[in-house]
Amino acid sequence: MTHGRANILLLAAGAIWGLGFVAQSSAMSSVGPFMFVAVRFLLAALTVLPFAVREEKNSHEKLTRSDYYGFFFIGVLLFSGAALQQIGIMTTSVTNSGFLTGLYVVMVPFLAVLLFWQWPHPVVWPCAMTALAGIYLLSGGQLDGLAIGDWLTVACAAFWALQIIFVNRIAIKSGRPIMLALVQFVVCGVLGLIIALGTERTEVFSVLAAAPEILFAGIFSSGIAFTLQAVGQRFTTAPQAAIMLSSEALFAALFGALILGERMSIQGAVGCALIFVAMIAVELVPALRSRADVRP
What we know:
The protein has 13 helices and no strands. The protein has helices spanning about 5-25, 35-60, 65-90, 95-100, 105-115, 125-140, 150-175, 175-200, 205-210, 210-230, 240-245, 245-260, 265-295. InterPro entries: Diverse_Substrate_Transporter, EamA_dom, EmrE-like.
C-alpha cells in the first residue's frame, strides 16, 4: 500500500469518527459511560472477527506471545482514552470536548520524541500547530472555565496520542493490523464490562434505548474506523497519522451542517480551512522534498 492510500484510510477513519460524535454523546442519556464502552467495543470485536480469522489463515507467520502482549497493551491505552472521553463528555461542553480531544495532534510528535527519540519530518511541527489552531476555531474559538470533565478529556487526548504511537510501532512489526484491532476491542469490551457491572446500574431497556447510537459506534466508529487506523498506520508515521485523524473535527462540522442543518460561522470555516491545509501540507511537502532530492 502506498503512503497516499494509507492517508486516505486514515482520512476515512476521521470522517467516520466525525459522523459518530453525536451518537456517542447522545447515548449518555440512556446508558452509563462504562457500559457504553463495553457494548460498543464488544460489538466492534464481532464486526472484525471474520476478517481477523481470514487474515490469520492467509498469514505465513504465526504471532508470538510478545505480539499479543503488545496488542493487549494497546487495548488498555484505547480503553483508557475511550473511558475518559465518555466520562468527560458528561461534565463538559461539546465545544471544550472537541477542542481538548484534538490535543493529541500536538501530543503525538512530542511524545514520540520523548519516548523513542523519534523525530518527525520538520513539516509535522507547523502542521500539527496549524491543525490544532483549526480545531480551536472550529470549536468556537473560546473555552469556558475548565471543569473536571475538561481535565479528563485532556487525559483522554494523552492516551489517544500514546495509542497512535504504539499502533504505528506494533502494527508495522507484527504485520497483522486486523488481529491487533480485534484484540484491542476485546480488551476494551471486557474491561468496560467488568467496571460497569461493579459501578453502574444498567438495565436491558436502557441499552435498548441507546441501541441506534451503540450500533453506529460499535460497527462504524469502532469496528471499521479503528481497523482502518491500524491498517493505514502501517504505511505512514504516527505524527502524520495524527494530523490526518484530526480531520474528525472537520467532518463533524460538515456532517452537522448537512444532516442537522447547523450553520457554520466564518470562524468555523477558517478552522476547517486550517485543518485542510495541514492535512494537505503533511502529505505533499515530504513528497515534493523527496522528488527534489532525487532529481539530478
